[in-house]
Amino acid sequence: MMKRGSRARSTLVTLLMLLPGLAGFFGLFFYPMMITVVRSLRPEGETVGWTVEHYVQFLGEPRARGVIVLTFVLSISATLCSILFSLVLCLVLRRKPRGHRFFRLTMLIPRVVPGLIGALGLLLLFGSRGWVNLLLLQLLPGLEEPVAINYTIPGLILFYTWLYFPFTAVTTLSTLESLDPAIEEAADVSGANRWQVLRHVVIPLIMPGILAGSVLTFMAAFGAFSIPLIAGGNHRPLSVEIYRQINFTPARWSAASARAMIMAALQVAFLTIYMRILRRPSV
Amino acid sequence: MTLIRQYLRAILGARKLLIYTFLLCFALMIYLPFTMIALRSIGRGWFGRLWLPPELTLDWYKWAIEVTNVVDITKNTLVIAALAVAMSTLIGIPTGWAFGRRGIPGRELLMSMILLPRMIPPIAYALGVAQIFYRLHLVNTHFGVALAHVAICAPYAILVLSATFEGLDERVLEAASVCGANPVRVFFHVIVPLILPGILSSMIFTFTTSYNEFTLTLMTYGKDTTTLPVRTYLAIGEGYWEVTSAMSILLVIPSIIMLLMIQRQVAPEKLVGGFKGV
Question: Does A79 score more than 90 pLDDT?
Fold first, then answer.
């Protein structure tokens, strides 16, 4: 009897302790999400009635496909660039070259500094009067006009990579450092050269770590909002498209909500596929 | 033989050169944008194909402080971040404890549910948050904006703190009480020192997240609660790049100081939210 009472009390305590987290989740995430869902199914500006016209209308637009493709192109290319870059960077940093502490810290800068300030700096650096263009004009004699980098898709991919590669790099580095050196030594002793060790031993072993980090990069890049908002020019991924809807007067909350739901569904679907690939043992 | 050795040494030397060139490019890539901002903020009449501004001035800083109200904006940002950190920690400690110390049925599922706000693009629920807050008159209040930030900060706090509590060794606590420490003493002299690093890293993490949060702020801010990312965005829209640059330099300094301060205490993985298994 006594025991049962104390167990019930312990369960109650656990529940009470969980309560703040659950309240936060339901109040600040679940309820707003529901509002968005309901809103997306209401006629514009009304609080009664149901309709799917916002979904139909957006998906029916020929522009919609462009927007969705752009969102995926940007986030997937940025993820791939981050993986490649992080791999090289981490392989170099693992050898602990002189000043590696400084470079490790440098790696975190894009994540610690507000993204908009980073984007402002990138816009200045790659602008038509920025140092990159000045350098290119000096180096390439045939070049008369500055190269347009800002407000183009390759430029955006570059910006995304700059801002979101630390997710991948940090995970890759920590996976690389937890790698047992004995494995590499074994491969080395067995007569594999540097490249073979890297290609057949190191990379397959750290692949799960790289992919786990790249999921974070992908999520950040897919949901990126501030960067395309100021540096996107005419290229508007889904997030900016959503924001544009509520910036109309009167604000089109229902249209925005429908687009937000489509965006959330696409991200969840892509992540599910990605996770499934990730879990597969042979990468 | 010596020739081969020479070749080998040359290749080895070149490899080193290659590595350092790469690292130099990487560092330039990260720091040059800030150098450009800094130069832009102190230059006057910097047009055409000039590498450096022809004339130096501090006028833009004066403008930034007077016109764009940097002082107020910094105050807003810090107040909001502090509120968000406090609320997230208050949510994170009990929930993290329950996750870490109690066998909760369906723990994995519950945890992924709590982490769901990280999987969904923030703008999707920011729309809902904005509509609720408009109704509750929470828009344009420090508390409201901070509360919106909690939506994204609390999951991180719970994640970090549940790992901390999980790492707490039962035997250490038992040893303390066997040695005659009463529960109060155990709490203050054993538990607190053990979990303090975890709480600290959760606080630092939520602080940086809130300090840099843009989407949720943009949806809930007003003219009295403009934070620094929103102000930067507005300034870029206004197009006075020199003043914007001056403002950015003033606002980026706290972030850099923060990074230098915390880099020894906190593992970098925690700073970018790179947790194993997402």
Answer: yes
Calculate how close chain A gets to B260, using CA atoms only, in Å: 8
Domain end position, chosen among B40, B57, B74? B57
How much is the pTM? 0.87
CA dihedral B123→B129→B134→B139, nearest 10 degrees, is -80
Q: Spell out the residues 6+ positions from residue B116 whose beta carbon is closer than 8 angstroms to its own.
A: A25, A29, B155
Tell me: do B212 and B87 sit in the same domain: yes
Measured CA distances, B163 to A33, B167, B202 (Å):
27, 6, 11
pLDDT band for position A282 (cuts 50, 70, 90)? very low
> Chain B interface, mutation test: which of A9, A10, A13, A36, most B Cβ atoms within 10 Å?
A36
ipTM of the complex: 0.85
Of A226, A264, A267, the CB nearest to B233: A226
Q: How many domains does chain B have?
A: 2
Q: What is the 3-state secondary structure (H, E, C) of B16-81?
A: HHHHHHHHHHHHHHHHHHHHHHHHHHHEECCCCCCCCCCEECCHHHHHHHHHCCHHHHHHHHHHHH
**A45, A250 Cβ separation under 8 angstroms:** yes
Is there a single domain that holds both residue B47 and residue B64? no
CA distance A256 to chain B (A): 8
Residues B200 and B72 in one domain: yes
Q: How far is B43 from chain A (nearest CA, A)?
A: 13
| A113, part of any domain | yes
* Number of domains making up chain A: 1
From residue A167, give the alpha-carbon distance in Å to each of A16, B65, B237.
34, 34, 29
Q: Which domain holds residue A236?
A: 61-279
A19, A171, A229 ranked by CB distance to B269: nearest? A171
Q: The domain containing residue B249 runs over which residues?
A: 60-272
pLDDT at residue B269 tops 60? no
B91/B26 same-domain check: no
Contact A130 B258 (CB under 8 A): no
Give the tens place of pLDDT for each residue, B208-266. 889 888 999 998 998 888 888 898 888 888 878 888 888 888 888 888 887 787 776 66
For residue A101, the domain's CATH number is 1.10.3720.10
